[in-house]
């Protein structure tokens, strides 16, 4: 694919991720747990991984964390560390699983659920380190896994749908991805 087209698509994906993440950070938490979110911007990260590989996914994940923290006024705070660290970890894990998805060993939904669980585990681990209390990880992880599974399932199905319509659109525009 032409480099200019790739950069343009990546910029559009990053914009979507930042807007979704920013809006989601302004909503009241869906559950009374610290930092609990639906993680809808991860749809964009997983799409970037599928279409552009690990490098594209890492650009979206890190860019989303940096820009969102800047726009929400939390730049260089602990939230950036938690978001970026967890996002990068889950991105790498999902990238490692995607070749299995392409060979139809696992589904994109299971890749998404694994990414969501790893995101929550990493975030809890980093929060435990920041506050110096390992009990956070021990006591909250089961609850965060219960949150990660349904949100990961939703994200996975959204990615399946969006990948399908994106591939059809790109073919009709005669663009190779």
What is the topological layout?
Layout (H helix, E strand, L loop, with lengths): L2 H24 L15 H30 L6 H25 L5 H24 L3 H38 L5
If you had to describe this structure to a student in words, what would you say it looks like?
With 177 residues, the protein is mostly helical. The protein has a single domain (3-172), classed as Orthogonal Bundle (Arp2/3 complex 21 kDa subunit ARPC3). The protein is 80% helix and 0% strand. α2 packs antiparallel against α3 (78-102) and α2 crosses α5. The mean pLDDT is 88.
Summary of the model, kept short:
This protein is mostly helical.
List keywords for this structure.
mainly alpha; globular
**Mean pLDDT reading:** 88
- CATH fold-type name: Arp2/3 complex 21 kDa subunit ARPC3
Q: What summary fits the major beta sheet?
A: none
Question: Uncertain segments of ≥5 residues (pLDDT<50)?
Answer: none
The secondary structure category is mainly alpha
Beta-strand share of residues: under 5%
- Count structural domains: 1
* Outline: globular
Order of helices and strands: HHHHH
Helix tally equals 5
Round the Cα radius of gyration to an integer and report it: 16 Å
